[in-house]
Amino acid sequence: MNPNVIRMIAGGLANVVVVLLIAPLCEGILRKVTACLQSRRGPPLWQPYFDLLKLLGKEDIESGESPALQRFVARLALAAALTTACLVPMGFPAPMNGAGDIILLIYLLTLCGICTLLGGLAAGSTYSLLGIGREMMTMIALEPLFAIALLAGAVHAGSFRLDAVLNGSVYAVPGIPWSGLILLVVMGLSFQAFVQRVPFDISEAETEIMEGPLMEYSGPKLALFKYAQMARLVIHSALFAALFVPWGSGLPFPLGWLLFWAKVLVIVLVVTAVAATHARYRIDQALRYFAGLLVVAFAALALAGYGH
Amino acid sequence: MMTPEQAVFASILICVAGAALTLLTARNRTLAGWIAFLVTAATSTLIFIAVATVLAGGASAGSEVFCKVPSIGFALRLHVDGLTALFLMLAALIAVPASFYSIAYMKHYAEYGVARYYPYFLLFLAAMYGLLSTTDMMWFFFIFWQMMTLPGYALIRFEHKKPENVRAANKFLLMMQIACAATLIGAEILAGAGASANSSAGVKYDFDTVSANLPALLHAQPVLAALAFGLFLAGFGIKMGMWPFGQVWLPDAHPAAPSPVSAMLSGVMIKTGVYGVMRYFLWLVPAGGQADFPLARWGLVVAALGTISLFTGTMQALKQEQTKRLLAFHSIGQVGYILLGFGACMALLPAAGPAAASLAALAMIGALFHTLNHGVFKALLFLNAGSMLHATGTQDLNKMGGLLKYMPLTAATALVASLSISGVPLFSGFASKWTIYVATVQGSSLAGYLSVCAAIAILTSALTLASFVKFFGASFLSRTSALVKERAAGRGRLEVGAMMQMPQLLLALICLMFGIMPAIGYGLVHAALAASPQGFGKTLGGAPAFSGGLWTGLSGVESHSIFVPLALLAVLGLAFLAARFISRLGAAPSRAAPPWLCGYAREAECNRYVAHGYYGEIKRYFRWLGGAPPAPSVNSAAPKEH
What is the bridge-based pairing of β-strands B590-592 and B562-563? Predict the structure, then answer.
């Protein structure tokens, strides 16, 4: 068998397993630190693992309008997240480097969102429809933001390959990398939204529309959606680290790998700190905020196009 | 053995004869429908053979002459090269399912006879075959253009008892005549000013004559030549629905026509405009005299117009609440993608640099592949809309809901088409959009503005997704509406019959095929470019733009971009199995229960979340862009009968 294919399979499996194992832990850290910041005791670190296990055994109430589709998209949501994990470097080069590029990555990230949308639509409850409307509007603003960051990297690198772009390519210009720095700020300011945390958890908004698209989901299906959402936090943090904080990725195996996960942990902690200290935005406020960022991002991309 | 030109000529004659035959048999709807289908199928077989000949063996050297009347210099010159073959293939590919769908679909127009449907349908098809292959830029261009416009007019006002349809048809007629005039004036400028002593009256307007005389004109009178090309862009721009012309006629005309005709209009007819622009801009200027042609500047213009079209068209589509009107606006948006790819091709072709020609070729492949894909998925979407209209009697998304249970096959095909047009990986739209993005972003090192165009295109693709989430969600998913319940109770079965299911299934399978094996589309388009050696076609056909195969996927210029759909499919499939395994770990029991709605009466129609409610904030921010549906449909959005 072709050694490239073997490397792809082994790397992909490694990424998937690591994401599956670490995602609930990150969620646990997030909850614990949030509690500390809010002067509560908070649940134990491994509470999310228990939650998932509990949900997997709970009764699955098929309360939506199209149960078969709902079952399908719940599974597809986690599958899409895991597939995306195979396109992201996590201490090693991206496993599916030979099978896709950053444009595929951009669209696969949307695929996770599409599953939530279809899930909400198939449930058909008014609250889930409210939620998917919000989710979709957020996606309209966020997908291009992420795409612009990756495209600017691709413009600098002159290539769409994952290994060429997801390696700090946004800074890869002679002189001061203006476009890269601007995009770093822009992505930093919108990162909460990518991982669907406060202040941008508008589409789920537990206290307001009761988890929106996920309202009619229970038991194993809810577990899958929750798992996918936890995986999203890890995947997006890893992407952010690979694109904007590339330093030290060339170190030999245990060091580079540990450093990478340390970066991811720091990003998760930052997300937690922001989430714990902010209140949720309304959808119109959020859209205005994203629109401003989008304009800046477009300017940065134009700069990148002309070599800055 | 027929030459490709003879095959096209025979197809035109068969269609015209078929039109007469269907007119005679129009009293029997089914018989006329079958005749129209058989005629379409026969011509498309001929066309497919011609296309295969051209794509496999290359085009013949020159045009072939039919109907010669030497005394008045009258002669029909047809020529089928690769570019023509590709568009002919699209026409034949869409016409067959559309005509088959018509047989059952036209039965529900009880008040309107089919004598005003099938003959026009066949004439319309014949005209498209002719327009795509004639080399006469004046007389036969005019004849075929009118032969396409007048039956098109009749088909759009088929339901003439509704005044809005007649208005839409009149608008279509007027715009097409303006487009015709613009194109003919452009041709007259080029032919008249460039005419030299050696061109006799009969071939004065022939493509090759104009092409041969063009370098001198470009050199001597660049402004005049630019005016002519500007007129071509405007004329064909009107036809293809480019901003700002498309918004004038297209969204009214497409919904008015019967659904199979909408599929033909959007899938094929507007592509003749795309064909015209491509043909005149890239194939007219001969290989020797390209120095004086400001191709890069035209590229900027076309890419900018494309970007504006794709954004405005899609943003206006987002506001629509009528199925076919929503799809019509998306035609403007998707034509924008095609124009963006084509404009990038023109901008990159003259650029210096080793990869410029390859990137230009890749952009052109993207544009042509998207033309094919759009033809297929948009035709499918219009057939889906037709089935929904057939089942529910309305085009209003606000009155639909929960159709998935009642029309599973239509729903499945509509989902495939919706995901295709939204550019979801493994569906057909993704492969062609991917190509356009790769070419534009990589080309931004040669023309900096292209990366911004690409980012706007990616943003628009999220808008497209939003619009189709609404289209699919509001009609097939979400809660069953009162209207759907009532119709289902009244008719027992809402799903359309097998006669209408099969064309939808065929088109959905083509979408999946191009999505999972985009190398097939690439191969077709590349063969087409290689078989069109005139003008810039030689550079485009010869450039090493991509590599790959059915199983190994695609990789762009110098392997800087890569997409292996089968590997993705395998990984996604395995991940899905893993997710399925995880979900069954706990062996959780399941139970059906009605959704909980905070105690509100679940059955009340006024508590249903309808299409009108989607994306309020975005619609509000882009109110200035116009295109919002008229007030009455907004008011009827929240029925108060309960």
Answer: unpaired
In contact, B29 and B106? CB cutoff 8 Å? yes
**ipTM metric:** 0.89
Residue A146: its chain B contacts at CB < 8 A?
A: none
Q: For A54, which residue in chain B has the nearest alpha carbon? A: B586
Contacting B residues, span 359-378, partner chain A, CB-CB under 8 Å: none
For residue B562, give the 3-state DSSP assignment: strand
Instruction: Tell me if chain A has a CB within 8 Å of the CB of B601.
Output: no
How many CA atoms lie less than 13 Å away from B51 in the CB half-sphere?
23
Q: Which residue has tokens 């033309």?
A: B371
Is B439 within the bounds of a domain? yes
- CA-to-CA dists, residue B121 to B19, B30, B163, angstroms: 8, 15, 22
In this complex, is the C-beta atom of B504 within 8 Å of any C-beta atom belonging to chain A? no
Does residue B75 lie within any of the structural domains? Answer: no
Report the gap between the CA of B404 and the closest CA in chain A (Å): 8
pLDDT tier for residue B602 given thresholds of 50, 70 and 90? low
Contact across the interface for A66 and B404, Cβ inside 8 Å: yes
**The total number of structural domains that make up chain B:** 1
Interval B547-575: pLDDT, tens: 877 777 788 887 788 888 888 898 899 99
Answering whether pTM is above 0.80, one says yes
The answer to whether B563 contacts A80, with C-beta atoms less than 8 Å apart, is no
Question: Does B494 fall in a domain?
Answer: yes
Instruction: Give B530→chain A minimum CA distance, Å.
Output: 26
pLDDT digits (tens, 9 = 90+) for A1-53: 677 778 788 888 888 888 888 899 888 888 888 888 888 888 888 889 998 88
In a domain, B424, yes or no: yes
pLDDT of residue B640: 41
For B491, the domain range is 294-557+597-642
